Amino acid sequence: MQRSPTVEEICAVAKRAISxxxxxxxxxxxxGNAACLLYGTSRQSHIFLxxxxxxxxxxxxxxxxxxxxxxxxxxxxxxxxxxxPDAPKVLCSKLPSKSDERKRGCxxxxxxxxxxxxxxxxxxxLEKIGDVLVLHPVLLLFTKLRTWSDRRISSRSYMxxxxxxxxxxxxxxxxxxxxxxxxxxxRGGAQWIPMTTMDAAWCRLxxxxxxxxxxxxxxxxxxxxxx
Length: 227
Description:
Layout: H1 7-23, E1 28-31, H2 32-39, E2 51-55, H3 62-72, E3 76-79, E4 90-95, E5 104-111, E6 127-129, E7 132-134, H4 137-154, H5 162-180, H6 195-211, H7 216-221
Parallel strand pairs: 2-5
Antiparallel strand pairs: 1-2, 3-4, 4-5, 6-7
Helix pairs in contact: 2-4, 4-5, 4-6
Protein backbone atom coordinates (compact mmCIF):
# COMPACT_ATOMS: atom_id res chain seq x y z
CA MET A 1 0.00 0.00 0.00
CA GLN A 2 1.38 3.39 -0.94
CA ARG A 3 2.25 6.05 1.61
CA SER A 4 -0.62 8.38 2.45
CA PRO A 5 -0.34 11.97 1.19
CA THR A 6 0.75 14.53 3.74
CA VAL A 7 -1.30 17.64 4.41
CA GLU A 8 1.41 19.65 2.68
CA GLU A 9 1.16 17.45 -0.42
CA ILE A 10 -2.62 17.77 -0.42
CA CYS A 11 -2.28 21.56 -0.25
CA ALA A 12 0.20 21.57 -3.13
CA VAL A 13 -2.24 19.60 -5.30
CA ALA A 14 -5.09 21.89 -4.22
CA LYS A 15 -3.13 25.00 -5.16
CA ARG A 16 -2.65 23.70 -8.70
CA ALA A 17 -6.33 22.80 -9.03
CA ILE A 18 -7.51 26.12 -7.60
CA SER A 19 -5.17 27.97 -9.96
CA UNK A 20 -6.46 26.05 -12.98
CA UNK A 21 -10.08 26.70 -12.07
CA UNK A 22 -9.27 30.37 -11.45
CA UNK A 23 -7.93 30.59 -15.01
CA UNK A 24 -11.42 29.47 -16.10
CA UNK A 25 -13.05 32.16 -13.91
CA UNK A 26 -14.15 29.56 -11.37
CA UNK A 27 -13.67 29.90 -7.61
CA UNK A 28 -12.79 26.73 -5.71
CA UNK A 29 -11.48 25.67 -2.31
CA UNK A 30 -10.54 22.69 -0.15
CA UNK A 31 -13.25 20.88 1.79
CA GLY A 32 -13.51 17.46 3.46
CA ASN A 33 -11.00 15.87 5.82
CA ALA A 34 -8.06 17.91 4.55
CA ALA A 35 -9.95 21.13 5.34
CA CYS A 36 -10.68 19.82 8.83
CA LEU A 37 -6.97 19.20 9.40
CA LEU A 38 -6.10 22.70 8.20
CA TYR A 39 -8.46 24.13 10.82
CA GLY A 40 -6.72 22.10 13.50
CA THR A 41 -8.60 18.83 13.95
CA SER A 42 -6.49 15.85 14.98
CA ARG A 43 -5.19 13.48 12.34
CA GLN A 44 -5.78 9.75 12.61
CA SER A 45 -3.05 7.61 11.06
CA HIS A 46 -5.54 5.09 9.63
CA ILE A 47 -7.23 7.71 7.44
CA PHE A 48 -5.76 7.79 3.92
CA LEU A 49 -6.00 11.42 2.85
CA UNK A 50 -7.71 12.46 -0.37
CA UNK A 51 -8.30 15.92 -1.77
CA UNK A 52 -11.90 17.09 -1.78
CA UNK A 53 -12.21 20.32 -3.73
CA UNK A 54 -15.46 22.19 -4.24
CA UNK A 55 -16.01 24.48 -7.22
CA UNK A 56 -18.42 27.25 -6.26
CA UNK A 57 -20.52 27.13 -9.40
CA UNK A 58 -23.29 24.98 -10.82
CA UNK A 59 -22.39 25.81 -14.43
CA UNK A 60 -20.33 22.67 -15.08
CA UNK A 61 -20.85 19.01 -14.06
CA UNK A 62 -18.04 17.44 -12.01
CA UNK A 63 -16.77 15.34 -14.94
CA UNK A 64 -16.33 18.46 -17.06
CA UNK A 65 -14.42 20.10 -14.21
CA UNK A 66 -12.17 17.05 -13.95
CA UNK A 67 -11.48 17.25 -17.67
CA UNK A 68 -10.47 20.89 -17.25
CA UNK A 69 -7.78 19.80 -14.80
CA UNK A 70 -6.44 16.95 -16.92
CA UNK A 71 -6.35 19.17 -20.01
CA UNK A 72 -4.46 21.99 -18.30
CA UNK A 73 -2.14 20.15 -15.90
CA UNK A 74 -0.29 16.95 -16.86
CA UNK A 75 -0.03 15.88 -13.22
CA UNK A 76 -3.78 15.28 -13.09
CA UNK A 77 -5.02 12.08 -14.71
CA UNK A 78 -8.06 9.80 -14.85
CA UNK A 79 -7.63 6.15 -13.91
CA UNK A 80 -9.89 3.11 -13.96
CA UNK A 81 -10.46 1.70 -10.44
CA UNK A 82 -8.83 -1.72 -10.01
CA UNK A 83 -11.28 -4.58 -10.25
CA UNK A 84 -14.11 -2.30 -11.38
CA PRO A 85 -14.02 -2.14 -15.20
CA ASP A 86 -17.53 -0.67 -15.39
CA ALA A 87 -17.01 2.01 -12.75
CA PRO A 88 -16.38 5.64 -13.75
CA LYS A 89 -12.75 6.67 -13.96
CA VAL A 90 -11.29 8.37 -10.89
CA LEU A 91 -9.36 11.64 -10.92
CA CYS A 92 -5.89 11.51 -9.36
CA SER A 93 -2.83 13.71 -9.13
CA LYS A 94 0.79 12.63 -9.19
CA LEU A 95 2.74 12.90 -5.92
CA PRO A 96 6.49 12.87 -5.27
CA SER A 97 7.87 9.43 -4.52
CA LYS A 98 11.13 8.22 -3.04
CA SER A 99 13.56 6.18 -5.10
CA ASP A 100 12.68 2.98 -3.23
CA GLU A 101 8.89 3.24 -3.39
CA ARG A 102 6.23 2.79 -6.02
CA LYS A 103 4.75 5.76 -7.83
CA ARG A 104 2.33 7.68 -5.65
CA GLY A 105 -0.93 9.40 -6.45
CA CYS A 106 -3.59 11.38 -4.64
CA UNK A 107 -7.29 10.80 -5.30
CA UNK A 108 -9.08 14.06 -6.10
CA UNK A 109 -12.82 14.45 -5.64
CA UNK A 110 -14.21 17.44 -7.53
CA UNK A 111 -17.53 18.57 -6.09
CA UNK A 112 -20.12 21.26 -6.71
CA UNK A 113 -22.26 22.87 -3.97
CA UNK A 114 -25.48 21.01 -4.73
CA UNK A 115 -23.73 17.69 -4.08
CA UNK A 116 -23.20 18.77 -0.46
CA UNK A 117 -26.45 20.69 0.09
CA UNK A 118 -24.43 23.90 0.11
CA UNK A 119 -25.10 27.30 -1.45
CA UNK A 120 -22.84 28.97 -3.99
CA UNK A 121 -21.05 31.41 -1.68
CA UNK A 122 -18.86 34.36 -2.58
CA UNK A 123 -15.08 34.14 -2.44
CA UNK A 124 -14.94 36.51 0.54
CA UNK A 125 -16.77 33.86 2.59
CA LEU A 126 -13.88 31.43 2.14
CA GLU A 127 -10.90 31.24 4.47
CA LYS A 128 -7.26 31.41 3.45
CA ILE A 129 -5.02 29.13 5.47
CA GLY A 130 -1.40 29.43 4.50
CA ASP A 131 -1.76 30.11 0.80
CA VAL A 132 -4.77 27.94 -0.05
CA LEU A 133 -8.49 28.67 0.03
CA VAL A 134 -10.56 26.55 2.43
CA LEU A 135 -14.31 26.21 2.90
CA HIS A 136 -15.70 28.32 5.75
CA PRO A 137 -15.68 26.26 8.99
CA VAL A 138 -19.44 26.64 9.53
CA LEU A 139 -20.16 25.20 6.09
CA LEU A 140 -17.55 22.52 6.66
CA LEU A 141 -19.34 21.57 9.88
CA PHE A 142 -22.62 21.39 7.96
CA THR A 143 -21.09 19.00 5.40
CA LYS A 144 -19.77 16.70 8.13
CA LEU A 145 -23.17 16.68 9.83
CA ARG A 146 -24.81 15.77 6.53
CA THR A 147 -22.39 12.89 5.99
CA TRP A 148 -22.95 11.59 9.53
CA SER A 149 -26.75 11.86 9.23
CA ASP A 150 -26.93 10.22 5.80
CA ARG A 151 -24.66 7.34 6.75
CA ARG A 152 -26.46 6.48 9.98
CA ILE A 153 -29.74 6.27 8.07
CA SER A 154 -28.41 4.21 5.16
CA SER A 155 -26.38 1.59 7.04
CA ARG A 156 -27.12 -0.21 10.31
CA SER A 157 -23.49 -1.27 10.71
CA TYR A 158 -22.28 2.33 10.41
CA MET A 159 -22.97 3.19 14.07
CA UNK A 160 -20.48 0.51 15.19
CA UNK A 161 -17.84 1.35 12.58
CA UNK A 162 -14.53 3.17 12.67
CA UNK A 163 -15.96 5.48 10.00
CA UNK A 164 -18.70 6.55 12.42
CA UNK A 165 -16.16 7.27 15.15
CA UNK A 166 -14.11 9.35 12.73
CA UNK A 167 -17.14 11.34 11.57
CA UNK A 168 -18.22 12.07 15.15
CA UNK A 169 -14.70 13.13 16.08
CA UNK A 170 -14.54 15.57 13.17
CA UNK A 171 -17.92 17.05 14.13
CA UNK A 172 -16.99 17.35 17.81
CA UNK A 173 -13.67 19.05 17.04
CA UNK A 174 -15.22 21.34 14.42
CA UNK A 175 -17.86 22.40 16.94
CA UNK A 176 -15.10 23.45 19.33
CA UNK A 177 -13.26 25.27 16.54
CA UNK A 178 -16.40 27.10 15.40
CA UNK A 179 -17.15 28.05 19.01
CA UNK A 180 -13.58 29.26 19.56
CA UNK A 181 -13.85 31.53 16.53
CA UNK A 182 -17.05 33.09 17.86
CA UNK A 183 -19.12 31.93 14.90
CA UNK A 184 -22.92 32.16 15.09
CA UNK A 185 -25.12 29.55 13.41
CA UNK A 186 -28.42 31.03 14.56
CA ARG A 187 -30.87 31.85 11.81
CA GLY A 188 -30.37 35.55 12.46
CA GLY A 189 -26.63 35.39 13.02
CA ALA A 190 -25.59 33.72 9.76
CA GLN A 191 -27.57 35.77 7.27
CA TRP A 192 -25.06 35.10 4.49
CA ILE A 193 -26.19 31.46 4.48
CA PRO A 194 -29.52 30.83 2.67
CA MET A 195 -32.43 29.81 4.89
CA THR A 196 -32.87 26.48 3.08
CA THR A 197 -29.30 25.55 3.99
CA MET A 198 -29.79 26.69 7.58
CA ASP A 199 -33.03 24.75 7.97
CA ALA A 200 -31.40 21.51 6.79
CA ALA A 201 -28.40 22.11 9.05
CA TRP A 202 -30.58 22.82 12.08
CA CYS A 203 -32.43 19.53 11.58
CA ARG A 204 -29.10 17.70 11.59
CA LEU A 205 -27.83 19.70 14.58
CA UNK A 206 -30.94 18.66 16.51
CA UNK A 207 -30.35 15.05 15.49
CA UNK A 208 -26.73 15.24 16.63
CA UNK A 209 -27.61 16.94 19.93
CA UNK A 210 -30.10 14.20 20.72
CA UNK A 211 -27.52 11.50 20.01
CA UNK A 212 -24.69 13.32 21.83
CA UNK A 213 -26.09 15.42 24.71
CA UNK A 214 -22.59 16.49 25.77
CA UNK A 215 -22.43 18.61 22.60
CA UNK A 216 -25.30 20.85 23.74
CA UNK A 217 -23.11 23.43 25.49
CA UNK A 218 -21.04 24.05 22.36
CA UNK A 219 -24.19 24.09 20.24
CA UNK A 220 -25.87 26.61 22.51
CA UNK A 221 -22.83 28.91 22.52
CA UNK A 222 -22.71 29.00 18.70
CA UNK A 223 -26.39 29.93 18.51
CA UNK A 224 -28.24 26.65 18.16
CA UNK A 225 -31.20 26.90 20.53
CA UNK A 226 -33.60 23.97 20.54
CA UNK A 227 -37.26 24.65 21.10
